[in-house]
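User: quick one, fold this
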Amino acid sequence: MTVVGPFGLSVRDQALEADVQTGLAAVEAGLLDATKSDVPFITEAAQHLVRAGGKRFRPLLAMLSAQFGDADAPGVVPSAVVVELTHLATLYHDDVMDEADVRRGVDSANTRWGNSVAVLTGDFLFARASHILADLGPEAVRIQAEAFERLVTGQILETAGPRDGRDPVEHYLDVMRGKTGSLIAVACRFGAMMAGADESAVDILTQYGERLGVAFQLADDVLDIASDSHESGKTPGTDLREGIPTLPVLHLRAQAAADGKPEDLELVELLDGDLSDDARLAEALRRLRAHPALERARRDTIRWTEEARATLAPLPECYAKAALEELCDAVVHRAG
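Assistant:
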């Protein structure tokens, strides 16, 4: 077995492994080509995050989904490049919105060049993705446009917060479906569609991608609290410190509001306070790790993952399906 993608995914068939590795290498070359400009500074800024690496989770899903048709079809790799470029563009914009200092182990673009350059570089990547997309046909353009609308809507809903009377947890899951799930769903859809898979397989893989995408984000929520930095690759409590309302915190707030237990209300007050102090952050993490809200978030993650796995059931048994199922196992493992 050879590691092929994120989380140590292994493929149990040499032919599939070769196809996936070849496809991912072609995507990497396509990303570098798409981020070149006649202006050297634009090339430097646009390739900043490409060269920093990343899981390439979305291209991997496109390559695996293409196995349900002709994986060598000419549109498969360009469509995966489109999805990854779109994802990268959102990272440039997200880092400006979040005032992030670091992305993928390097200075964020906004830290290195300022907010204006970071935003415009993201726009440049969107433009390059659109240029490639135009050659894939009007249906591909429509699918990408709908997904991008959902992605932006999810981001706006996250910023605006839940309307009065709306369950914050349900609101958060809606945000995750749009902000994260929509583009991962498109990765699966494009891979299968460009490979000429039958319509039912395309639909199944699209649903799988959205559910796995939500599960992937929820696992990150759990990791932010439950893991150490070696395990997660980032400093624990980063989301807590930034005041991001992740799923364990939302469950805690709901339980505190429902039961009114003094210890829960005290923990909520701690989270609402200044967590820039390392000692206060460590105390918040210690108490959250022992709180039932974390386990509830972990169960939610597993439920979304199992829904993704169940979606695959009608597909024929093959090594590609087994690899997609293994990705579900990997997400569960990340969530503990």
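User: anything notable?
Assistant: The radius of gyration is 20 Å.
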